[in-house]
Amino acid sequence: MDITLLKTFIEVAQTGSFGTAAERLLVTQSAVSLRIAKLEASLGRALFTRSKAGAELTVAGSTFEQYALALLHTWEDARHHMMIPEGFKHTLSIGAQYSLWLRMGFR
Asked: In terms of pTM, does the model score above 0.90?
């Protein structure tokens, strides 16, 4: 499974627009269209109804959205876990406003 296809699908589903999804993903609209076409071909189902007003999920698209989100979360969890160095079992995430980052002692 190509994670890029899942991310593209989720962006189009959330925005309802191939153009807006392209802007958010920093790719062309034709790249988004190609990715969605590739995903639809691999699933054998249309995921969106396209019109001048935008893109709306089909019934199959609505069903697949749940799986796409779960797959993406699983991928992110696995990727995060694999980044933990050997000998360590846990990570700690710290969030801060960028302007405060250096004052907190981080580079």
From this structure: no
